[in-house]
Specification:
This protein is α/β, with parallel strands linked by helices. The chain has 11 helices and 8 strands. The two termini are 13 Å apart. The structure holds 2-phosphoglycolic acid (PGA).
Length: 251
C-alpha cells in the first residue's frame, strides 16, 4: 500500500505572519488525516519560523529548492544540511519554474537529487511536458528524457525514497487541469518506465503525484486514478479550506 501524499508548494507567496497562520491551519488538517503524508513548502527564509509553528504535528516541511553542494562559495544558495537542521524532511527539485526561469537542466537536477538522497531528504522530483510538446505527440518522450536525466547515478535502492511529481507545464497555474485519463495515462507510463530502467518491478512501491491546477473540486477524481498517489498543489495550497479538501480527497 502506497501512502498518499498531498504537498503544498507555496512558491514566493505569503509573508511571515501569513506563513505561520496558514501552517497552523494545515497542521490541524494534517493531524486530522493521519493516513495521508501532508507536506508544505514555504519560502526559504520562513522555514525556521514555520518549523516552530508546526512542531508536534504530523505536518512535514519541504524546501522549494536546494543547492547540490554541502556548503561553500555559492552566494545566495542553501545546502542540504542547513535545510535539515531547520526542520525540513523534503525538498522539491526540478520544478518547471526552476527549469524555465533559472535554467535548471536535467544534469543539474540529478546532482541535486543525489545530494538530497545522500542527506536523507526526500526529494519531490518534478517533470512534465509543455503544451507544444504535448501537441507534437512528444509527452512520453519528454517525460522519459527528464526522468532518465534526473535519475542519472541514482541507485535502485534509493529509487523508492523519491516522490515523483508529474506536472504538465501547460496545467501549472493556468486553471487548465489534465483530465484524470490524461494524467493516469502518463502515470502508468512512468511506472512502467521506472520498472524497465531499473530492471525490477518497482510499480507497487513508487509514489507518483499529479500537479497542475489541482483544486478542491477536481482532486478526488484525479487521486482516485489507479496510478496517481496524491497531488502537488500550488495555488490551492494557499487557501486553507481548499487545501484541507484536497487532503480529505486523498484519504
Ligand atoms: P498550481 O501549481 O496548482 O498552481 O497549478 C502546481 C505547481 O506548480 O506545483
Amino acid at each position: 500500500m502506497r501512502t498518499r501524499v498531498v504537498a503544498g508548494n507555496w512558491k514566493m507567496n505569503k509573508d511571515l505572519s501569513g506563513s505561520r497562520e496558514l501552517a497552523q491551519a494545515v497542521a490541524r488538517a494534517a493531524d486530522a488525516s493521519p493516513s495521508v503524508e501532508v507536506v508544505i513548502s514555504p519560502v526559504n527564509i520562513y522555514l525556521g519560523a514555520v518549523a516552530d509553528t508546526i512542531r508536534g504535528s504530523k505536518l512535514k516541511l519541504s524546501a522549494q529548492n536546494m543547492h547540490w553542494a554541502e556548503s561553500g562559495a555559492y552566494t545566495g544558495e542553501v545546502g542540504p544540511t542547513m535545510l535539515k537542521e531547520i526542520g525540513c524532511s523534503h525538498v522539491i527539485l526540478g520544478h518547471s519554474e526552476r527549469r524555465e526561469y533559472f535554467g535548471e537542466d536535467d544534469a543539474l537536477i540529478s546532482q541535486k537529487l543525489r545530494t538530497a538522497l545522500a542527506h536523507d531528504l526526500t526529494p519531490i522530483f518534478c517533470f512534465g511536458e509543455t503544451l507544444a510538446e504535448r501537441e507534437a505527440g512528444r509527452t512520453q518522450s519528454t517525460v522519459e528524457k527528464q526522468i532518465r536525466g534526473g535519475l542519472e547515478g541514482v541507485s535502485s535502492d534509493d529509487l523508492t525514497r523519491i516522490i515523483f511529481a508529474y506536472e504538465p507545464v501547460w496545467a501549472i497555474g493556468t486553471g487548465r487541469t489534465a483530465t484524470p485519463e490524461q494524467a493516469q495515462e502518463v502515470h502508468q507510463f512512468i511506472r512502467a518506465l521506472l520498472s524497465d530502467m531499473f530492471g525490477t518491478d518497482v510499480s507497487s512501491k513508487i509514489r507518483i503525484l499529479y500537479g497542475g491546477s489541482v483544486k478542491a473540486d477536481n482532486a478526488a477524481e484525479l487521486i482516485s486514478q489507479p496510478d496517481i498517489d496524491g497531488a502537488l498543489v500550488g495555488g490551492a495550497s494557499l487557501k486553507p479550506a481548499d487545501f484541507e479538501a484536497i487532503i480529505q480527497a486523498a484519504r
